[in-house]
Amino acid sequence: MNENLKNILAVNFGGIGDEIFFLPALISLKKEFPDSKITLALEPRSKSVKDLTDIIDGLFLIDVKGKKKYLELLKLIFLARKGNFGKKFDMVISSGGNKLIALLLFMTGIKERYGYDSGYLSRKLLTKAVPLNKNQYACKMYHDLVSAVTNFKTELPEINVQPQEKIPNSVLIHPGVSRLSVQKGMIKTITPEIWAETVNKLLEKGKKVILAGGPDDAECIEKILKLINPSDLFENYYGKTKSLKDLAVLIAKAEKFLCSDSAPLHVAVAVKTRTFVIFGPTDDKKLIPQSEIVTPVKANDKCPIKPCLWAHRQTTCESLDCLKISADDIVEKICLL
After folding, report:
1. Dihedral (Cα; 223, 226, 231, 235), 10-degree rounding
2. Is there a contact between 73 and 43 (Cβ–Cβ < 8 Å)?
3. Are 5 and 90 spatial neighbours (Cβ–Cβ below 8 Å)?
4. Up-side HSE of residue 32: CA atoms within 13 Å toward CB?
5. Residue 163 CB neighbours (<10 A)
6. Residue ranges per domain, the chain?
7. Beta strands 208-211 and 274-279: pairing type?
8. What kind of fold does domain 167-336 have according to CATH?
9. What pLDDT digit, counting tens, does each position of 41-74 carry?
10. I need a surface site. Which of 2, 12, 131, 335 has the fewest CB within 10 A?
11. Helices (H), strands (E): how many in the chain?
12. From CA 213, how far away is CA 307, in angstroms rounded?
């Protein structure tokens, strides 16, 4: 170990869920180098991850999804060569399996470079090319990147939300998925009608139901609200959480949490709230830890290629049999476990 490593650049592009998955690797780095400064290069859409943690000292916002992708990557190289906090970077760690990532890291001029093994170029240009194992929980996959520099192993995301007093008999529901997923044809959740039926059945069982959502969920929330039966046990919390940190505190207050395969799931894992997740075309084994805290809710559709999204196809199929999950099945799981 080189105890002089004080200035670290981490590169991880993706949505807010990807950044939460990445946190355990950064936490282990901070444990190994407690006096270090960690700068995270990420997409602008995911910058709110910094509100959840003190591990990240600085951000480089790189819009790799925009029309000027290559200019943005050149900006990253320039920023990386310049350094941060008045000092050059000692180490760079990057996720992603693209073969050109090794070249990108080499061009930063940073002495120690760690990334995934994507072939000859990565083994030649990186200090350590780490085997990429996608068949595991995503936090572990990212954590493999730092295995060469630390013996610390942080299993789950940790965020700056203190334990909260639980709302008795409560079920918090967050039905939404990211707008980008919908735009790309990645349907990953049940219909608003099934969400509303689930709310009504939980209310019938005497549960205190709280409905929340983000800016991307307006249309879905509107449809759900039209179908919910009036009840003193129901609270519409849509629009009341002004930040990801606000949502994290609300999730921590709930006894149970029901959501789609989306970023709030990973927040719930971090605050250790009992969580139930709707899974259809995505792989629950890669997206949730092996823990009693989280239960996947899946259809018994016997699709031969399920889970298919990303592994077999880039968009979901038209039949969506994997998302034909009844409200009765969802409520039964929540009330029994």
Report:
1. 40
2. no
3. yes
4. 24
5. 9
6. 7-146, 167-336
7. unpaired
8. Rossmann fold (3.40.50)
9. 999 999 999 999 999 999 999 999 988 999 999 9
10. 131
11. 12, 12
12. 26
Structure tokens at 97: 């399996």
- Report the 10 Å Cβ neighbour count for 125: 17
Residue 79 DSSP SS3: helix
The domain made up of 7-146 has a fold known as: Rossmann fold (3.40.50)
Bond into 307 cis (ω within 30)? yes
Q: Cite the beta strand spans of the chain per DSSP E.
A: 7-11, 37-42, 58-61, 91-94, 112-116, 128-130, 167-174, 208-211, 234-236, 254-260, 274-279, 294-298
- Residues 261 and 279 sit within 8 Å (Cβ to Cβ): yes
The two three-digit tokens of residue 9, written as one number:
């650049």
Are the beta carbons of 107 and 90 closer than 8 angstroms? no
The closest alpha carbon to 244, from 53, 56, 64, belongs to 53
Task: Tell me whether domains 7-146 and 167-336 share a fold.
Answer: yes
* CB 185 within 8 Å of CB 220: no
The set of residues, in sequence order, having a beta carbon less than 8 Å from that of 169 and lying 6+ positions away, is 206, 207, 208, 255
pTM of the predicted protein model: 0.92
pLDDT at 3 over 60: no
The structure tokens 């192993």 sit at 153
Which DSSP string do the residues of 252-320 spell out, in sequence order? HHEEEEEEESSHHHHHHHHHT-EEEEEESSS-HHHHS-SSTTEEEEE-----TT-S-BTTTBSS--SS-
Question: Percent of the chain at pLDDT above 70?
Answer: 97
Q: Which tokens sit at 221?
A: 């929330």
